[in-house]
Amino acid sequence: MGMLSSENEVAKKANWSAADFYKEAKAALNEKNYIHAIELYEDLESRYPFGEYAQQAQIDLAFAYYKNDNFEAAIATADRFIRIHPRHKNVAYIYYLKGLVNFNRGIGLLERYLPTDKSQRDLGTAVESLDDFATLIRRFPQSRYVADSKQRIIAVKSILALHNLNVAHYYMRRQAYIAVINRSKRIIEEYERTTSVPRALLLMVDAYQHIGMNDLAADAQRIYDLNYPDGMPPMYNPDFTYKPTVSEKIWEYLELDK
Predict the structure, then answer these.
(1) Which of 1, 131, 154, 207 is the most buried (most CB within 10 A)?
(2) CATH code assigned at 179
(3) Residues 136 and 151 sit within 8 Å (Cβ to Cβ)
(4) Phi and psi (nearest 5°) for 189?
(5) Residue 226, Cα to own-chain centre: how many angstroms?
């Protein structure tokens, strides 16, 4: 029965035009039937590798791979599109999509739906997403994706800064004070608009005091006092961090992570 059904499907598509393939693939995509959409887009590309439908199919295929958690294929498809169609009207979207893929592909299924400390994950792909969003902003400053990309860059930098702060705390527990100082300097220099900066400054004060460099400790303390006269800002200060999504706000309100 399965073989017969497969043969009927092949016969049905035998005389399809590029428009027919695209229409059916788009319908499957809209219905979130990503596996079927991927099959149809791949068939379209194989049968009709040139033309407007083929180009749009590549864009939609990258998105379908992303939604189906096939992140490597999504990146490969996006890169291929950029290489073949560098001046396409939708290439800015492809850079944006790459950023989304790289931001999310280091996150497991549970992490995607449960609030967790994202700074503890593998951050290699987060760094790549930073490059993707930055490239989009630099090359396409008028794109409608720029505003969201800027917010996502804030989010990524906050995660990277917090990761480095966790490392600095680890060094402090190991009494590796020079390493604490160096890691704290990195946070201050590379992630200046994050809430990890004041915490890094106070770590520097503590580390300098431990190695007897009290003048430098006092300098770090003065910088902290000058920039944070009202004391330590909350870790998720909206002036410095990515605005929480609606789902994250619901999690916080219901205290489901407690």
Answers:
(1) 207
(2) 1.25.40.10
(3) no
(4) -80, -35
(5) 33
Other CB atoms within a 10 A radius of the CB of residue 185 amount to 15
Provide the angle, in degrees to the nearest 10, between the axes of the packed helices 91-104 and 52-67: 20
Name the amino acid, one letter, at 224: Y
**Residue among 23, 63, 73 at smallest CA distance from 43:** 23
What is the rounded CA–CA span in Å between residue 72 and residue 29?
A: 19
Whether 95 is in a domain gets the answer: yes
Asked if 31 and 128 sit in the same domain, the reply is yes
pTM for the full model?
0.74
Distance from chain centroid for Cα 141: 19
Verify that 97 and 182 share a domain, yes or no: no
Range of the domain at 201: 161-241
Per-residue pLDDT of 153-209, as tens digits, reads 998 899 899 999 999 999 999 999 999 999 999 999 999 889 999 999 999 999 999
What is the rounded distance in angstroms from the CA atom of residue 204 to the CA atom of residue 189? 13
**Phi/psi of residue 131, nearest 5 degrees:** -65, -40
